[in-house]
Design brief:
The chain is of the alpha+beta class and about 250 residues long. It contains three helices and 15 strands. The strands form three sheets. Strands 1, 2, 3, 4, 12, 13, 14 and 15 form an eight-stranded antiparallel sheet that branches.
Length: about 250
């Protein structure tokens, strides 16, 4: 075999490797854009449903696709393609309206046309109080971030979706609000950690349907104390095994 033949084989091998890597990257981009996107929980606003250190998959097709379905949100088109409306109670990742470079995650409380208000800590939808039952207390700093017991209430929305909320204080600033009327093609979002959530009661405001990224689907990993999933040596003490592969509700 000549030197030229050997060089051609080496060049072909390197080129094939590059081709495989490129195909893998394209496939990963397609999956991330159209199907699933990984997302890590950055704050405690959705406690006790979601905790800091939870890693979950977001289903991208749930509400159709907008420019925010693509990396870096390029202005290729407006509105949504194959769009569908979220259901009340869905946990949704969306782009923060005042700064779309930021991802937020909250629960859909108000649909277009709804009137939303909080009175003395009780949520009202279209002037009807949402049933709210005290189910107990949590005394676990990993869940509450408090060094004391915290009341847990079970809320049930008009469509039957039920979930737990935390009540850190009986007189928090978000416990009494004005009435919000949700505009067309917008949604009203709230965190389950009602007294520690920047949501539609405050700076988030109404969330345009174009800003929806996808529905939170399943927790595939969870680790406490701010540890990285790559710090395998911390798994024995910090891995939250009971949260793995839990569906988000």
């Amino acid at each position: 075999m000549s030197v030229a033949d050997k060089t051609d084989k080496k060049s072909g091998g390197f080129g094939e490797t590059i081709n495989v890597i490129a195909q893998a990257l394209i496939l990963a981009l397609i999956i991330r854009t159209l199907f699933f996107q990984p997302f890590s929980i950055p704050s405690g606003s959705m406690r006790p449903t979601l905790l800091e250190g939870d890693y979950l998959f977001v289903t991208k097709w749930a509400y159709g696709y907008s420019k925010h379905s693509l990396p870096f949100s390029p202005d290729l088109f407006e509105g949504r393609i194959w769009g569908s409306q979220p259901e009340r109670g869905d946990v949704v990742v969306f782009k923060y309206p005042p700064n779309p470079s930021l991802d937020y995650i909250k629960r859909v409380i108000g649909l277009p046309g709804d009137r939303i208000q909080v009175r003395r800590g009780v949520l009202y939808i279209n002037d009807e109080a949402v049933p709210r039952e005290l189910v107990g207390q949590i005394d676990n700093p990993d869940i509450t971030e408090e060094n004391r017991p915290v009341d847990v209430y079970r809320e049930t929305l008009p469509n039957g979706v039920s979930y737990n909320t935390l009540d850190l204080s009986p007189n928090a600033v978000g416990d009494d609000t004005r009435e919000f009327v949700v505009p067309s093609a917008h949604y009203f979002m709230m965190g389950d950690n009602r007294d520690n959530s920047t949501d539609s009661r405050f700076t988030v405001g109404y969330v345009p349907e174009e800003n929806l990224v996808g529905r939170a689907n399943i927790i595939f990993f969870s680790i406490a104390d701010g540890a990285s999933p790559l710090e395998i040596w911390k798994w024995p003490s910090d891995l939250r095994a009971s949260r793995l592969l839990n569906f988000v509700r």
